[in-house]
Specification:
44% helix, CAP_dom, 4 strands, CAP_sf, CAP domain-containing protein, Pathogenesis-related Protein p14a, single chain
């Protein structure tokens, strides 16, 4: 199946990433929780994972070399005390991805956790057309 999307500009990718981040913080605000802080380094880790899933046509928390989200964070020099990851694929907007996460107990728990920082990475391509990764961590 060819991708639903044309070649994505960096502006489009960034808009999807920021919308996912903003939706996470809106859900937290509704419950009186403090917002996540955006973290460029962890967003880079998340973006690379989404790009890897799109380029190599897989959907998993572990990459094809077996590296877990925590392995990838450490590889990128991110020191973590607590961390989590949400992934989604195929949803045509960040709103739909967020809706899916909020209706999944484990993903919702990550979004509403006491972890402090969040970075989101989005990539277009592959059989699912779009891949989302949210990486959460507390240094």
């Amino acid at each position: 199946m060819s991708s639903f999307y044309p070649e994505a500009s960096s502006t489009l990718v960034s808009a999807y990433e920021r919308q996912s981040f903003d939706l996470a913080n809106a859900a937290r605000a509704k419950l009186g929780m403090s917002p996540f802080a955006w973290d460029d380094r962890i967003a880079g880790t998340a973006r690379k994972h989404s790009q890897d899933m799109a380029a190599n046509d897989f959907f998993d928390h572990n990459n094809l070399q077996g590296a877990s989200p925590f392995d990838r964070m450490k590889r990128d020099g991110i020191k973590i005390r607590a961390a989590a990851e949400n992934i989604a694929a195929g949803q045509t907007s960040a709103i739909f991805a967020h809706h899916g996460w909020m209706n999944s107990e484990g993903h919702r728990k990550n979004l509403l956790s006491d972890i402090k920082r969040l970075g989101v990475g989005v990539a277009f391509g592959g059989s699912m057309s779009i891949y989302y990764t949210q990486n959460f961590y507390t240094p």
